[in-house]
Design goal:
The chain has 304 residues and is mainly alpha-helical. 49% of the residues lie in helices and 3% in strands.
Length: 304
């Protein structure tokens, strides 16, 4: 893995760890096991166990199929088969070439740069608020669904079987619709985090190269992989200062804007454009188009 690929991975870990939402499948699996019907509820908000009610007419509620335990004994590891091994040609010795330049080392801590980055802190705060808002909405919806289910249980004696089945079907449709809505909102938050992180990591790659070149460094390692270095080799703080000066804020799609829809609008470059450029290389210089007023995409980007 190259330095900049590792830098992107560590930067992504530092930013997305605080804004990532658990997938709907994980949340549903965890809550099904705790009796919450597939909804995400914090442990502190779990309802207390109610006393056993008197025997009443029960409403048939669809239950999630439980995983079947495997009754078969554990299989023993199989011995790898013996396969043919055709001979390969010998590679000739290569003539000696010029030696590489002497290594001038530098070290950097990408997680520290992300902690010092004002743009990363802004994205973490904004997207964290959206995540908390989504969790609260999911909890409120779950409480409403449970209240309706309780009402149906209490009025079961006065309803016919057809009426019970109709109301039960409406409750199930309501829950399925809410789950789809929350999953879509979670995707939008996650993609908004990716949009903001992509700006930081692209700028960071450029700045690391510039800072290293200013010190005549031709090899920069992650400080987490270095046991010892001397003063003057660590460019972490200098890189963070330049990053905050060049990129103090990032563009974050507005809360009601789907990043995928924004990408299709053509208002700004996309990751698909970046992939195409990396594969075919830069094309011929385009002729400047006449200036036209363009509507800026919805964003929380601060204006100075």
């Amino acid at each position: 893995m190259s330095f900049f690929s590792a830098a992107r991975f560590m930067a992504a870990s530092a930013l997305l760890a605080s804004v990532s939402l658990p997938s709907l499948a994980q949340a549903q699996s965890a809550q099904n096991s705790s009796g919450n019907g597939g909804w995400f509820v914090p442990k502190t908000a779990q309802p207390a166990a109610a006393p056993a009610p008197h025997p009443v007419r029960r409403v048939p509620v669809a239950q999630q199929p439980m995983a079947q335990e495997a009754d078969e004994p554990m299989q023993q590891p199989e011995t790898p088969p013996v396969l043919p091994q055709p001979p390969i040609p010998d590679s000739p010795d290569l003539p000696k070439g010029a030696p590489p330049p002497a290594a001038l080392l530098g070290v950097i801590s990408i997680p520290t740069v992300m902690r010092l980055s004002s743009a990363a802190a802004e994205a973490q705060r904004v997207l964290g608020e959206r995540r908390d808002k989504l969790a609260a909405a999911a909890q409120k919806e779950q409480a409403g669904w449970r209240a309706e289910q309780q009402k149906l249980q209490e009025s079961a004696r006065t309803l016919t079987s057809e009426q019970i089945q109709l109301r039960e079907r409406h409750l199930q449709e309501r829950r399925a619709k809410a789950q789809r809505d929350f999953a879509n909102r979670a995707r939008i938050i996650q993609e908004a985090a990716n949009v903001s992180l992509n700006q930081i990591e692209r700028e960071l790659v450029r700045i690391v190269r510039q800072v290293a070149a200013s010190h005549s460094m031709n090899l920069v390692l992650h400080s987490e992989q270095v046991a010892l270095h001397v003063d003057g080799q660590d460019i972490t703080e200098e890189t963070a200062k330049v990053l905050n000066k060049v990129l103090p804020h990032v563009f974050i799609p507005a809360e009601d804007v789907d990043p995928e829809v924004l990408a299709k609008s053509g208002k700004m470059p996309t990751t698909a454009d970046e992939d195409t450029t990396s594969q075919v290389g830069p094309g011929p210089a385009a002729q400047p188009a006449p200036a036209q007023p363009a509507e800026a995409p919805a964003s929380i980007l601060r204006k100075h």
